[in-house]
Structures are given as structure tokens and as C-alpha cells.
Design a protein that fits this description.
13 helices, 64% helix, globular, 305 residues, mainly alpha
Length: 305
């Protein structure tokens, strides 16, 4: 039974797959830190009275200084690049995980908690304690035998489980708070209308598509049912083959719909990185290497005659 549980928790995967997931998550994290740094620095300069510490920073009596946030952000950016490259991974990766957790938590301690960051932070933490640098890592020789192994599969499985739990909780929350009224579409329609109206009044980016659609009541029941179905069916990704691929495509389309109707962006999901642990992403590296090694893609040495 223990062996069966271990096999379910950590399906076999090649080192290349885990490494490519590291590169994708790390590359996304580099861009994320750069873009998010402006928000982190701006919030650090807000009046102290607005500071409401949450999560791992709930024990703080006052916010971190703007200077310290700047230093931590610079360290996080360098660590994110090293994480992506796999350089001194077993030292740098845990440090980056801590830095990212602290900075995102501090940024969320000013009255607005951004749930769109959760999956990225959790995935970085999981990868930080895995052998994700076994392949495609700076300063390391890749393994000669890339046979799929549980050693490389467990982290991918745990990353997938985190995604599954997040979506199932979201689906259950809809049913708990709205019940059958959610499936009837009225709550979703009102939510789309309220979200866009509020953004229009505040001068924020809104969705003209969503504002236009609210006049058609008939379209919201199937959209509401589809949203819950996608979220509650997330466990199918623990299977293999078409079930997994179909759900990933449906979840991605779900986020496209959220963006189109409410101008709410889930960049980690829309970029596809959130689902990388579920897919044979090592094929991306294989294609990139094959393209690089094609005749004519290498620079030709100059003729000395």
C-alpha cells in the first residue's frame, strides 16, 4: 500500500521535464519580480497606519522600510535569474523561495490580498527543494541516463496537486456562497456587471465585452456551470493522456473568459506556466536544441583567404 501511495504521489518523469519546468517558472519569476517591484516599493512608502500584516509576516508590528524592500527586491531578482539557470540551485533556490514569499506577503499586507500570486510562490517553494537542476543547469553536467524516475516526478506531482486543490477550493466556494443561484447564472451576471461598473466609476481598466454581455441573461447560466465544472473537475489531471490535456485547455480557456468579461488577469495561468508540471514540456527543449543544431543555424566562420 505504501508503494502504491508513493507511486501515485510521485509519478515517474525524466530529469529534463523537471528542469524545463524550473526554467519556465524561473523565467516567469524574473519578469514577475521586475514588474511587481514597482508595487512593492510603492506600498512600502504608504502611511504605516495602512499596514495590516498577513501570512508569515503577521507578527510584524510595522512594515519593512522602503530601503530594505529595495534591497530584498534586488536580491530576489538576482536569485530568480540564478533559479532559472539552475546555478548553485540547492543554495540559491531556497533563498529565492524565502525572498519571494516575504516580498509578496509584504506587498499583500496593505489591505488588498492578491490571490493571483499564490500558485507561483508555492511552485517556487516546491521546486526549491527538488533536484530541478539535474539537467539544463549552469555548472552541472546533465545525467547520462535520463530514464524517467520518481526522484524527478514527485515535485511535478506535488505542483500539480497544489493546482488541483486551488481550483477545487474555488469551485466549492462558488457553490457554498451561491448554491444553485450560482448555477442559474444570476450571481455571475451580477458579478460581471458590478465589477465592470465599479471599474468604470474608478477610471480603471474594464471589459467592454462583459459590460455588453450583461444584457443577455441567457448566456450566463452555461458560463456559470462551465466555470464550476472546470474547477471541480481539476482532479482529472491526476490521470494521464487526453484527460489531462483537455482539462488544461479548458482551464486556460476559462481564464481567457475571465479576462474578456471582467478584465481580471491571471498571468501565471494564461502564460501556461501554472500548468507546466502536468505536460511533457521537455519536448520544448528537444525542439529548441534540434533547431539550434540544424544546418545553417550556426554562424559560419569567416574565410581567411
Amino acid at each position: 500500500m505504501r508503494h502504491g501511495c508513493r507511486r501515485w504521489l510521485s509519478e515517474e518523469a525524466p530529469a529534463r521535464r523537471l528542469a524545463v519546468v524550473r526554467i519556465l517558472v524561473g523565467g516567469y519569476a524574473v519578469v514577475f519580480v521586475i514588474i511587481r517591484s514597482f508595487h512593492w516599493l510603492d506600498t512600502a512608502r504608504l502611511p504605516i497606519r495602512r499596514f495590516q500584516p498577513v501570512g508569515v509576516l503577521a507578527w510584524l508590528d510595522e512594515p519593512l522600510s522602503a530601503g530594505l524592500v529595495l534591497v530584498l527586491t534586488a536580491l530576489a531578482l538576482g536569485a530568480a535569474a540564478a533559479f532559472m539557470l539552475g546555478w548553485r540551485f540547492h543554495i540559491v533556490a531556497p533563498a529565492f523561495a524565502v525572498l519571494l514569499l516575504v516580498l509578496t506577503t509584504h506587498g499583500n499586507s496593505w489591505g488588498q490580498v492578491l490571490h493571483t500570486e499564490n500558485l507561483l510562490v508555492l511552485h517556487v517553494i516546491i521546486l526549491a527543494f527538488s533536484p530541478a537542476d539535474a539537467a539544463y543547469a549552469v555548472g552541472r553536467t546533465p545525467p547520462q541516463d535520463d530514464t524517467p524516475s520518481h526522484d524527478y516526478g514527485w515535485a511535478l506531482r506535488v505542483m500539480t496537486l497544489v493546482v488541483v486543490v486551488a481550483y477545487v477550493i474555488a469551485g466549492l466556494a462558488k457553490l457554498r456562497n451561491g448554491g444553485m443561484d450560482w448555477l442559474a447564472g444570476d450571481i455571475l451576471r451580477n458579478q460581471v456587471a458590478h465589477d465592470n461598473l465599479l471599474k468604470i466609476q474608478l477610471g480603471d481598466v474594464h471589459s467592454p465585452i462583459g459590460a455588453w454581455l450583461v444584457q443577455f441573461a441567457w448566456i450566463f447560466p452555461p458560463l456559470a456551470v462551465a466555470s464550476v465544472l472546470v474547477e471541480l473537475s481539476a482532479p482529472v489531471v491526476l490521470l494521464s493522456g487526453r484527460w489531462r490535456t483537455t482539462w488544461v485547455a479548458a482551464a486556460w480557456a476559462f481564464h481567457v473568459g475571465v479576462l474578456a468579461t471582467m478584465a481580471i488577469l491571471f498571468p501565471y495561468q494564461l502564460a501556461g506556466v501554472a500548468f507546466a508540471s502536468m505536460l511533457p514540456v521537455e519536448n520544448l527543449a528537444d525542439r529548441a536544441l534540434a533547431w539550434r543544431n540544424r544546418p545553417g543555424t550556426r554562424p559560419v566562420a569567416a574565410d581567411s583567404s
